[in-house]
Structures are given as structure tokens and as C-alpha cells.
Amino acid sequence: MKKVKSTMIVILATTFSIGLAVGQQGSGAGPDPQEIRAKLEKISAELNLTPQQKVQLLPILKEEAPELKAIKENASLSPIQKARQLRQVGAAIDAKVLPILNPTQQGKWQAMREQERQAMIQKLKQK
């Protein structure tokens, strides 16, 4: 039972980190362009992105945001199903983002993701 709980915490932490990577979306019809741009600016500041990298990342964030939102809002999915789907989207995001980044930025990106996962694990343990 403890192993199942630990697995759930890891899956949910991954889910949370994906949400942070792309930004939380409101309950409107689609992703808020201002939220996407704000998320891009946050990522840009943390990774010290070049203007060209920002241009390359923006369509990735725009493309993935509605998909993430749809998964999160799908009431027919169990939490584990949501976590698995979000994890797949997160892997796809990483596959698109990492080639755009230089090695130093890639390390920072991975560290950011790990910090987000750890924060979520701590949050879940408190519940």
C-alpha cells in the first residue's frame, strides 16, 4: 500500500510539474495568450533564453496548453489516467524544448522540473 501511495505521489508530482512548465489555464474557452506569454517570460528569465529561443518556444507552449487543459478538465478520467496522459504530454514537451536549449539551459530546465516535482511531493505529503 505504501508503494502505491509513493507511486501516486510521483505521478501527481510529475503532473504538477508539467502544469507549471506550461502554465495553469483558466476555465475560459481556450488558453489565455497573456498567461502563455507570462509563462514564456518566466522560463526565459530562469534559462536566460535568446530572442530566437523565445520565438521557438512560444508555439510549443501555445500548442500544448489546450491539450493540457483538456486533460485536466476531463472529468471522465481518473486521477491516475490524467497523470499518465499529462506525463506523456510532458515528455512530448521536453522532446520539443530540450533541442532548442544549449547544454547549460538543458541542465537548468531539468533542475527546474525536478524542483517543481519535489515541491509537489511535499505539498501532497502535507494533505
Highlighted features:
single chain; 127 residues; mainly alpha; 80% helix
Detailed description of the structure:
The structure is a single chain. This protein is mostly helical. Helix content is 80%, strand content 0%. The chain contains 5 helices and no strands. It has helices at residues 2-22, 33-47, 51-73, 79-97, 103-126. Helix 1 packs across helix 4 (79-97), helix 2 (33-47) packs across helix 3 and helix 3 (51-73) packs antiparallel against helix 4 (79-97). The chain starts with a helix and ends with a helix. The model is unreliable at 6-18 and 20-28 (pLDDT under 50).
Question: Can you give me a brief rundown of this structure?
Answer:
By secondary structure, the protein is an all-alpha fold.
